[in-house]
Design a protein that fits this description.
By secondary structure, the protein is an alpha+beta fold. The protein contains 15 helices and 21 strands. Strands 1-2-3-4-8-7 form a six-stranded antiparallel β-sheet, with helices on one face. It has a three-stranded antiparallel β-sheet with strand order 9-10-11. Helix 4 runs antiparallel to helix 9. The chain is globular, with a radius of gyration of 34 Å. About 10% of the residues have low confidence.
């Protein structure tokens, strides 16, 4: 790992020679990492170099890390509920505190479910890209894309500016659609605020601050503090139920701050004496529908609020499309991280010079000419519709004969004209316009197919996913129409994508004899390694006392698991 000694452990960028404090993130490589967390420069799975802790929450800790395979910085979230678990300083294994075993196991399963669900939404722009979720050290890790960003709170502090409603509507649309996708899969974010919405270096908004359901429930050991002004009443009053419109309240509160510069009054205080208003100078610039939507989204009690993020989306964006339809992002759906966004001003109508009064004679002539033009248009319309059958006007017939869609041109005096014969060349040209050649999708990855505009234009592509021992994850296994075939434009093609190696649930072999545990796990497709621990003199030799991976979790076939067994007594 000598080649990575010059990396800043705070942001994983190269450090100038001889420096320990990073000029980019201001973190010091000499910082002491508390023993509860993974040691600096430790390596997970032989590929992830661990750096300094970036953020801690009640259910997990996030590290700066570096993927030494693809040579890129990443973020790694480790399931580590501090009040439920401790870490073995020798083995780095995480284990539940005495009496919390059942709660720890349930929370761990929630953590796996949360990040695996987010991973299925990797194509949603405002959500983090999750590279993989794996078990190790008796806990679980989620590896995410690293990107340069600041919080929305830091953005408003730096720019000291407000946003117009039109700007807010555009830049927040990806956040609304991301929350819709999460809510539809049973995930309530519950922590949407200025601190959990990030502004990337590209100006796009992204969500962060995800947590397991138990961190938003009555589990005192995991309950996260509410964000004043952005947390609805149900997050502080445990008698109420957290539901889909929990996120509606929080996001509406963030939008309120963006357009007014004010923070919504604390929900618990509003329940007693609601003083929240939209300032008149701001309200005058907002469409009435927007005011009604924000007020409805910010109602204190959940039963009085907009019911879901879908309703919130429909209320704000229905003028741009059908209710429920997701509109594509534009290049303007972003914020500048480095300078204040200029507000778009309406271009005034060009002033025209007033016409001079020409007197009554001129006015009479204008009226006469206008009337003549109107009568002429009426006659031409009537003639071209049916009078041509009874009245012959040679000059008018010749003038209208070139207009193909008029009834008088469908045949001479009512007779149907003969259709011109299409030539072979014409038919060949039409055939080429209607048919397209199917490419070899096997040469591409899942994301490359998704991002290809020509594929979207020429085919209706649907994806199926299946495990494969031979085909790499996210590569194509097969396609329903073979490469080189010609099909009608818009034809459906089913592309089967590899979801990686088959996954197997790791059985719990704790307390078993090593030979029996080895037989069970190798039969399931795991690679088993053995480590012997010194026997204190009371434990049965060769029995499994620790597993490097968490039992009950799915792992890819061929994954290595280390079993620690007790050695011989006195050995």
């Amino acid at each position: 790992m000598a080649e990575y000694q010059n990396l800043c452990l705070g942001c994983m960028r190269p450090l100038p020679v001889g420096m320990q404090v990073c000029p980019n993130c201001s973190r010091n490589n000499d910082e002491i990492q508390p023993s509860l967390y993974l040691p600096k420069r430790s390596v997970l799975c032989g590929k992830y170099l661990i750096g300094l802790v970036k953020e801690t929450a009640s259910d997990c800790v996030t590290y700066a890390a570096f993927d030494i395979v693809i040579k890129k910085p990443v973020f790694i979230c480790e399931f580590l509920p501090e009040k439920l678990a401790i870490r073995d300083e020798i083995s780095d294994n995480v284990r539940p505190r005495a009496g919390y075993e059942a709660m720890y196991g349930a929370c761990l399963q929630s953590f796996v479910s949360l990040w695996q669900t987010i991973q299925t939404l990797n194509e949603v722009p405002a959500l983090p890209t999750v590279y993989e979720v794996f078990g190790l050290n008796s806990t679980v890790y989620a590896v995410c894309e690293s990107f340069e960003s600041i919080t929305l709170d830091e953005y408003f502090t730096a720019t000291e500016s407000l946003l117009s409603w039109e700007r807010v509507k555009k830049v927040f649309r990806p956040i609304v659609t991301a929350l819709m996708q999460l809510n539809s899969r049973g995930i309530i974010h519950g922590r949407v605020s200025l601190s959990t919405i990030l502004v990337g270096a590209d100006g796009k908004l992204r969500l962060s601050g995800f947590s397991i359901p138990q961190a938003k429930s009555n589990v005192i050991e995991l309950r996260s503090p509410c964000s004043a002004g952005y947390s609805p009443l149900e997050l502080s009053d445990t008698r109420l139920t957290i539901c889909k419109n929990t996120d509606v309240y929080s996001l509406a509160a963030v939008m309120y701050t963006a357009i007014t510069g004010l923070q919504v009054q604390n929900a618990a205080d509003r329940a007693v004496n609601d003083l929240m208003v939209i300032p008149s100078d701001v309200a005058q610039k907002l469409p009435q529908k927007v005011i009604e939507t924000i007020v409805s989204a910010l109602r204190v009690h959940p039963e009085n609020r907009l019911r879901s993020m879908q309703e919130f989306y429909d209320a704000l964006y229905r003028t741009e499309g059908q209710p429920g339809s997701l509109q594509p992002e534009t290049n303007n759906d972003s914020l500048s991280v480095f300078q204040t966004e200029p507000e778009t001003e309406e271009t005034p109508e060009p002033k025209t010079r007033p016409e001079k009064d020409s007197g009554p004679v001129a006015m009479t002539i204008k009226v006469f000419l206008t009337l003549l033009i109107v009568l002429s248009m009426l006659f031409v319309t009537a003639y071209s519709t049916f009078l041509y059958k009874y009245i012959e006007v040679g000059l008018l017939d010749n003038a209208l004969s070139a207009v193909s869609f008029l009834p008088m041109n469908s045949g001479a005096k009512g007779e149907k004209p003969e259709e011109p014969e299409s030539t072979t060349e014409d038919r060949t040209t039409a055939w080429k316009l209607q048919y397209v050649t199917v490419p070899n999708f096997r040469l591409l990855t899942y994301s490359e197919i998704l991002q290809n505009a020509a594929f979207k234009r020429n085919f209706e592509i649907s994806f199926e996913f299946e495990a494969s021992d031979e085909v790499e994850k996210n590569s194509v296994i097969s396609q329903s129409v073979e490469p080189g075939e010609s099909v009608e434009q818009g034809s459906q093609i089913i592309v089967t994508i590899s979801s990686g190696k088959p996954k197997i649930v790791l059985k719990d072999v704790m307390g078993m004899n090593y030979d029996e545990a080895y037989r069970i796990l190798t039969a399931d497709g795991f690679n088993v390694e053995k480590v012997v621990r010194k026997n204190p003199g009371i434990m049965k030799p060769d029995t499994v006392c620790n597993m490097s991976l968490v039992a009950g979790i799915e792992f890819e076939k061929g994954t290595s698991v280390t079993l620690t067994v007790w050695g011989e007594i006195g050995g």
